[in-house]
């Protein structure tokens, strides 16, 4: 091997030794560059994740803020009143003014004790008349109908009787004799004849009147000497003003003495029989004021009589009330409610009827103002009675501030909160 060849091989070996070193450095630079980019990317990603985490945290903070705002909005959405965990509600002055809420302290008031009792409307028999014949007679004519208003002395039914015909004939004979004797005078006729004529005339007149003829009918009969008028016909007349309540006959019927043909009553004044337990009936006196309720109407009344025996069916004491029947609204047979004042007077706590309401469980309650103005809470009470729009209550202390107007609004606000709205 010559020197030239050896040198060539040496150069080649030297080149091969250097080349990997050069490649490694280049690779290292590339690797370092890649590592740097990876680290930079990793750092960027790390910062991005951290930044994202901060963003999410900020979003959570915004959500939390939104929740707080929503809570505040929700809390503010109750119309300006606060709800309390103690079952009370607070109203601001504007709400109270708008709802017309009035609060007053309770003070004992003098009241008349009353007794409530069911009752029935009856005829006022003191103003009721039964039209009956006094002798056997036949019905031949009708002059009034059921429900018709009649006046005292008005003919209601015409009858015919043989007995009346005989009495009418006797009266006409006696009347003629009496007129002749009077014309002749005491100087011409004897005292005995004069007296007998007068007595016979008086007796004959009294007989037809007792049989049922009225004074105007008798005068009409005697106004003529026509004996054909003695036909036995006569009319029964109304003994007082009133309304025809009953007809119990037909034309052609033979009526017996005392048989009721027509009933007339003055309905401007009626009776109501209230059934009161005997244990409390002694608290009622004649003359006490009372009230009769029928539907949505009330009629003033007065205690007229108190029965001294119990009703055999109801075992109650009958209290007879005299009631003025305005506009003919009441009629016998109606069932009504009554309130009768007793003779005792006492003091009690009272509120307007509208201030006492039913709670969710059916108890009666009022709404009392708590320590601060506008804060209300329901309180259960005992409703003793209601009279003329005033409720008498028990179970609450005097001087308690109670809602006397606008109670329904307060109850509605409490119901919205879902609280138990009465306090045992």
CATH architectural designation of the largest domain: Beta Barrel
Strands ordered across the widest β-sheet? 3-12-15-14-13-16
CATH homologous superfamily of the largest domain?
RNA polymerase II/Efflux pump adaptor protein, barrel-sandwich hybrid domain
Taken in chain order, the helices and strands follow as HEHEEEEEEHHHEEEEEHEEEEEEEEEEH
What's the Cα radius of gyration?
Answer: 54 Å
Question: What does this protein structure show overall?
Answer:
The chain has helices spanning 3-76, 93-99, 162-184, 191-211, 215-222, 278-281, 407-417; strands spanning 89-90, 102-105, 108-122, 128-131, 137-142, 149-150, 155-160, 233-237, 242-247, 254-255, 262-265, 269-276, 289-294, 297-310, 317-324, 335-352, 357-358, 364-369, 375-380, 382-387, 390-394, 401-405. It has 424 residues and is of the alpha+beta class. Strands 3-12-15-14-13-16 form a six-stranded antiparallel β-barrel. Strands 1-19-18-17 form a four-stranded antiparallel beta sheet, covered by helices on one side. A four-stranded antiparallel beta sheet has the order 4-11-9-6, with no helix packed on it. A hairpin with a 2-residue loop joins β20 and β21 (390-394). The longest helix has 74 residues, at 3-76. Residues 270-343 form the CusB-like beta-barrel domain. Residues 27-91 are annotated as: Disordered. Keywords: Transport.
């Amino acid at each position: 091997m010559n020197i030239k060849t050896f040198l060539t091989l040496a150069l080649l070996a030297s080149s091969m030794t250097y080349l990997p070193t050069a490649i490694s450095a280049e690779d290292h630079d590339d690797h370092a560059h890649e590592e740097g980019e990876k680290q930079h990317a990793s750092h960027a990603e790390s910062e991005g994740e951290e930044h994202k985490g901060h963003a999410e945290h900020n979003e959570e903070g915004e959500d939390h803020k939104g929740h707080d705002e929503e809570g505040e909005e929700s809390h503010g959405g109750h119309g300006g009143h606060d709800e309390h965990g103690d079952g009370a509600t607070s109203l601001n002055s504007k709400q109270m003014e708008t709802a017309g809420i009035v609060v007053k302290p309770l003070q004992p008031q003098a009241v008349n004790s009353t007794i409530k009792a069911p009752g029935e409307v009856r005829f006022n028999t003191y103003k009721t008349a039964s039209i009956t014949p006094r002798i056997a007679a036949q019905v031949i004519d009708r002059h009034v109908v059921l429900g018709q208003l009649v006046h005292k002395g008005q003919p209601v039914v015409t009858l015919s009787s043989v007995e009346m015909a005989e009495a009418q004939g006797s009266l006409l004979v006696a009347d003629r004799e009496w007129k002749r004797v009077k014309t002749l005078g005491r100087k011409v006729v004897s005292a005995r004849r004069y007296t007998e004529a007068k007595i016979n005339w008086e007796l004959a007149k009294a007989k037809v009147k007792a049989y049922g003829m009225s004074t105007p009918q008798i005068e009409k009969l005697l106004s003529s000497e026509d004996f054909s008028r003695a036909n036995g016909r006569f009319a029964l007349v109304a003994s007082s003003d009133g309304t025809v309540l009953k007809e119990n006959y037909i034309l052609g019927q033979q009526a017996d003495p005392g048989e009721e043909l027509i009933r007339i009553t003055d309905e401007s004044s009626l009776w109501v029989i209230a059934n009161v337990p005997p244990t409390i009936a002694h608290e009622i006196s004649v003359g006490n004021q009372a009230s009769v309720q029928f539907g949505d109407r009330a009629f003033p009344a007065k205690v007229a009589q108190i029965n001294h025996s119990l009703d055999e069916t109801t075992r109650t004491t009958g209290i007879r009330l005299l009631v003025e029947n305005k506009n003919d609204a009441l009629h016998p047979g109606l069932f009504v409610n009554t309130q009768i004042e007793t003779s005792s007077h006492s003091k009690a706590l009272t509120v307007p009827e509208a201030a006492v309401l039913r709670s969710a469980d059916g108890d009666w309650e009022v709404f009392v103002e708590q320590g601060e103005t506008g804060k209300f809470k329901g309180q259960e009470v005992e409703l003793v009675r209601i009279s003329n729009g005033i409720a008498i209550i028990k179970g609450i202390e005097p001087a308690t501030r109670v809602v006397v107007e606008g109670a329904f609004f307060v109850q509605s606000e409490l119901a919205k909160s879902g609280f138990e709205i009465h306090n045992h």
